[in-house]
């Protein structure tokens, strides 16, 4: 039996970890510790301050905010 393919924002996680050299949990800690709360503000911050690409930043923020809201 095969495991189902990961879909949605989490599908970016292996490439994020490989490209930026930090585990997803560390990125989530940074997002959660930021004083910013709006999705696109957090995306822009990750891009400007940490050099992430838009898709990677968006995936991390979307997944983190969804986890925190209980979705």
From TrEMBL:
Domain of life: Bacteria
One Pfam family per UniProt: DUF4287
InterPro entries: DUF4287 (IPR025629)
Protein name stated in the entry: DUF4287 domain-containing protein
Organism this protein belongs to: Streptomyces poonensis
